[in-house]
Specification:
heterodimer, A: 473 residues, alpha/beta, Aconitase, Domain 2, Aconitase, domain 3, 5-stranded parallel sheet, 15 helices, B: 208 residues, globular
Chain lengths: 473, 208
């Protein structure tokens, strides 16, 4: 084609989008093809609706299911799910998967886990694809260089029936992390710093591409954590260009291409990164070395500050709306303006969720817990059965249990509490999850978002502590 | 995620009703309906709209919460600050509002997934300039029983002081709402194009 050698520089998002357009309507709507569809127990009703309307799944070979939201994390026995409504979701998912031919990693299967942990772990998530799931944290998968976003239940039914979605093309925004991250700084600290900068609606209507030397430095686990919370910055999706770390991570995973197919795939994946000279609708740059361990103090993920700072004073807010918002957040959180974050006592710790339950997260928490004692109730909930096995093979479970932490089974657990695992009113929780919303972890519960290392530091000291003082460089 | 079988979409054209003002930014879908109610059948979720912020620990209504006021009765319009419906993709946040009678949400901006979910349930999310929203929220604080008119065909909102403001909406979404069309039936009319895409993609990316 004549235009091939004068092609305009394109962003990675643009390249992936273009390859998946089925129909471009003159009114600006695109019918977008979906390569892979992940399904969890909360989506059981989308299956039901499809069946009730007499429709069939177009491509059962493109859908993969695993129960996570309603899974108990103290047992692997379906019959132990006490709430009949919860049991219906878990059992119903398995029944629909069986009758439609959708692959399922069910309870009792070592591959079961949180859907956003299982996808990359199984090699279902690959560079260059479109991937959706009826869950907002689907942005996670973009860490491997694909376009992945969360959808609602009606859209889940639509994808099941047609393998496509109607979309208006989002805008593109690049977030650069310039310069190396400091010692002890994780993907979680980076994304909290980004959201604090751009705001909880900062990325609305945009796909976020994270770039720069601070991003390249992150492991794949750290990138998954970072992209996971793109939605907390309002982003439609988050993505990171694939590189040799990505290919090494994917190689040999069960659903990844093998042999000659791998070579063809790899050659294609290397064409994906954003071209030099491609333009974004918006760019933001943060300095990597300036990012410190972060803690949220309010009820939106944008309410985040370095552990070395203090709770803000609403009186100093730039406008009345923000003053009222901060005052309301501090009242809910039971915090006084000006309190140093490192002096806030914590009642409980939760380490887990699709944000931070991967093997590297558990290793970082274990490095802090080792030889110390948890001062408060502290849970470790691995992201999948496979991660649990691996952690046990490495002896991490022993480190945790000897330090007084509780070692549990895979699931979403206290991140969202749908399975009944919630805190008590007024309880203050250091949590490695993604949302510090009012009532997210139970009515009246006060959630502070932190990294796994910072959560472990809170566990062994009973308050927020700069983890850099507890570990060696 | 969601819900019982979807209800038939009701076409939307024009309405004039009272409005409930939620004068807060970043109202997330966890607040609109907390997670612990999501496994209930849809008709049982209806009582849990804004459950935890609407009531005290003992379940009694929190005075001053807009939905608890007398003017909220019969309101079909909700006006809120920026980033309304952010967070979790739970479609229940839209259906519980619809089942409580709301058909229009007006804010400076919305969470993207909530915005999409609204159309899937015959509800109309309208973005208006932040200054106009401020004016509406202030007016509703003084006069909670004020009426607002929304005309989808004309793409206008007429406020309590009789100002009229036009709004943008994708023509695709507008037609679907006006006709009460379900996306799936429309998409199935493109079945040949989908099959053609699949053949092309299978040749280009045979590892998938």
């Amino acid at each position: 084609m004549a235009e091939a050698h004068v092609a305009k520089p394109a962003t990675m998002f643009e390249k992936i989008w273009r390859r998946h357009v089925v129909v471009d309507r003159p009114d600006g709507y695109t019918l977008l093809y979906i390569d892979r569809h992940l399904i969890h127990d909360g989506s059981y009703n989308a299956f039901r609706r499809l069946a009730a309307n007499g429709m069939k799944i177009r491509r059962p070979d493109r859908a993969y299911a695993t129960p996570d939201h309603y899974m108990p994390t103290n047992t692997r026995d379906k019959s132990m799910i006490a709430d009949p409504n919860h049991k219906r979701m878990v059992v119903g998912l398995a029944e629909h998967a069986a009758s439609t031919g959708v692959t399922i990693f069910d309870i009792g299967d070592r591959r079961q886990g949180i859907v956003h942990v299982v996808g990359p772990e199984q090699g279902i998530t690959l560079p260059g694809i479109t991937l959706v799931c009826g869950d907002s944290h689907t942005s996670t998968h973009g860490a491997l260089g694909c376009l992945a976003f969360g959808i609602g239940s009606s859209e889940v039914t639509h994808v099941l029936a047609t393998q496509t979605l109607w979309q208006r093309k989002p805008k593109a925004m690049r977030v650069n992390i310039d310069g190396p991250l400091g010692f002890g700084i994780t993907g979680k600290d980076v994304i909290l710093a980004i959201i604090a900068r751009i705001g909880a609606a900062g990325g609305t209507g945009h796909v976020l591409e994270y770039a720069g030397s601070g991003i390249r430095q992150l492991s794949i686990e750290g990138r998954l954590t970072l992209c996971n919370m793109s939605i907390e910055g309002g982003g439609r999706a988050g993505m990171i260009a694939p590189d040799d770390k990505t290919y090494a991570y994917i190689a040999d995973r069960p659903y990844a291409p093998k042999g000659e197919a791998w070579d063809r795939a790899l050659a294609f994946w290397r064409t994906l990164p954003t071209d030099d000279g491609a333009t974004f609708d918006r760019e933001v740059t943060l300095s990597g070395p300036d990012i410190a361990p972060m803690v949220t103090w309010g009820t939106s993920p944008e309410d985040a500050a370095p552990v070395t700072e203090a709770v803000p004073d609403p009186a100093a807010a730039p406008d009345a709306a923000r003053r009222d918002g901060q005052a309301r957040a501090l009242a809910y959180m039971g915090l006084e303006p000006g309190t140093p974050i490192a002096e806030i006592p914590v009642d409980r710790v939760f380490i887990g969720s699709c944000t931070n339950s991967r093997i590297e997260d558990l290793r970082m928490a274990a490095a802090v817990a080792k030889g110390r004692k948890a001062q408060i109730p502290s849970w470790i909930v691995p992201g999948s059965g496979i991660i649990k096995e691996q952690a046990e093979a490495e002896g991490l479970d022993k480190v945790f249990t000897e330090a007084g932490f509780e070692w549990r089974e895979a699931g979403c657990s206290m991140c969202v509490g749908m399975n009944g695992e919630i805190g008590r009113p007024g309880e203050r929780i250091a949590s490695t999850s993604n949302r510090n919303f009012v009532g997210r972890q139970g009515k009246g519960v006060r959630t502070h978002l932190v990294s796994p290392a910072m959560a472990a530091a809170a566990a062994v000291t009973g308050r927020f502590t700069d983890v850099r003082r507890l570990i060696e460089a | 995620m969601s819900n019982d079988e979807k209800q038939q979409l009701r076409p939307f054209d024009r309405l004039t009703t009272r409005a409930v003002a939620i004068d807060q930014p970043n109202v997330d879908t966890d607040q609109i309906i907390p997670a612990r109610f999501l496994a209930l059948p849809r008709h049982e979720q209806v009582a849990h709209l804004f459950n935890d912020v609407r009531t005290h620990e003992d379940g009694s209504p929190r005075e001053g919460f807009p939905l608890n006021g007398p003017a909220a009765k019969g309101a079909q319009i909700l006006v809120a600050e920026r980033n309304f419906g952010c967070g979790s993709s739970r479609e229940h946040a839209v259906t519980v509002l619809v089942d409580n009678g709301f058909r229009v949400f007006i804010a400076p901006s919305f969470g993207d997934i909530f915005h999409n979910n609204s159309f899937q349930n015959g509800a109309l999310p309208i973005r208006l300039p932040a200054e106009r929203i401020r004016e509406m929220l202030d007016h509703l604080a003084r006069r909670p029983d004020a009426s607002i008119t929304v005309d989808l065909e004309a793409q206008t909102v007429t406020g309590p002081d009789n100002w009229t403001q036009s709004f943008e909406i994708d023509s695709f979404r507008k037609q679907c709402l006006l006709q009460g069309t379900d996306d799936i039936s429309l998409t199935l009319s493109y079945a040949d194009a989908i099959a053609a895409h699949e053949r092309r993609a299978a040749a280009e990316c045979d590892w998938l």
